[in-house]
Every structure is written in structure tokens, then in C-alpha cells.
Amino acid sequence: MFEYQVTDIFFDLDHTLWDFEKNSSLTFAKILNENNVGVDLNGFLEVYSPINHQMWALYRENRVTKSELRYQRLRRTFDSLGHRIADETIDLLAHEYIEHLSSFNHLLPNTIEVLEYLSPKYRLHIITNGFQEVQSKKLRGSAIDHYFDKIIDSETAGVKKPHPYIFELALEQAKVEPHKSLMVGDNLEADVLGAKAMGMQVIHYNSNLEAVHPECITIHDLIEIKTIL
User: Fold this and answer.
1) Residue 33, exposed/middle/buried by CB under 10 A (0-12, 13-18, 19+)?
2) What percent of the chain has pLDDT over 70?
3) Which element (helix H / strand E) includes 20?
4) What is the three-class DSSP state of 108?
5) Which of 14, 156, 179, 194 has its CA 20 to 30 A from that of 59?
6) For residues 102 and 133, is the Cβ–Cβ distance under 8 A?
């Protein structure tokens, strides 16, 4: 299936193992209600989700800071909804969102089964564009941290996927050559093309329904990994 034998598998975290959309929705349900923000949750999420993706793209490109990302995704959502809200409330919501996000720990389907299947055969690692403290809490809270040897986050690395350095750092820490490693992630640009440019083998977990492409093997359910490895 692969040109070289794989010894190490690197996973993305959000949208690949950890069910970001579900956990994020539960977090917003909690903090919007507790702060008496009078917006319809479904309507809010429908507007927020694409704005959040746009802001993360800007963050990957170093065009916004972490604090700008956290503020602007909320400000732009409320402005789009035509909902008047003070900056102080947005700052409070931004803080509480990060504080409570990792308290919800739903995983994407078949995550545990696949990790149980892979862990006796391969060394497993994480490469994530999330923030160190938050991502560590997610891994511990969802009880999957023990599956992974090395956890590399963009905040610690100082660059974000698809920048070559975060992959170089991950390979160096895992002490593995690129061609013996496999990256599994949901984002075509950050995960697939970033890892492929480093000489890593790749599986695209297309949970975002991105367009069909010839870059690598594509799966739509993690369980498909068991038929590949």
C-alpha cells in the first residue's frame, strides 16, 4: 500500500481524532446560556463555523495573532448576526470558551478502536496547530494521551502546519526518517501537502468533505485505516 514500511504514525488532533465541531457546539451552548447572550445557538454556529475556519487560515499564515483570532471570530459572528454585544462580553466569552472547551471530550467515530489497533504495531504521535495548554487538556480529558509518544504543537514549535519546521521538529523528536513516517490529518493544505513536502507518507482523513484530489490515499472514516495498515 505504501512505498516504504511505516514505523511511526503522526496524527492531527482537531477534526481528525477529537470531535472539534461537537465539543465546540456544547461549549458555546454552555457559555452563551450562562452569560445570557440572547442568540439562537444553531443560527450562531452556522455563522461562526465558516468564520472560525477563515480566522484559523489567517492564523496559519501569521496574519493574525492568537488573541486576534479569539476575539475576531466572535466579533465577526455577532456583527454578521446583527447582534449588539460589548467588547467586554466578547472578551469574557473568548476566555470562557477556551476554559471550558476541553471539558467536553467527544471523539470522532472509531478513534479508540483504531488507536487500539495501531498502538501495538507503530509508534504514535500528534502534530497539532492548536495551543499547547488546550491541546494537552483535550488529550488527557478524552483519555487518549497514553497512546502517543511525542506531542508537537504549533505554539511550542513557533510555526504552524504546513510550515516545514514543525514536521522537521516532529521527525527529529520521534527519531524517525520521513519516508518511514505517516501523517494522518483532515486538512489538505496543512496536513497532507505539508507532510508530503517533507517526504512523509500521508493519509487524508477527509472529514471536511474537501474536493477529490490525487495527492494521497483518502479515507472518510478512521476505521478504513485498518484495511490499509
Assistant:
1) exposed
2) 100
3) helix 20-34
4) coil
5) 179
6) no
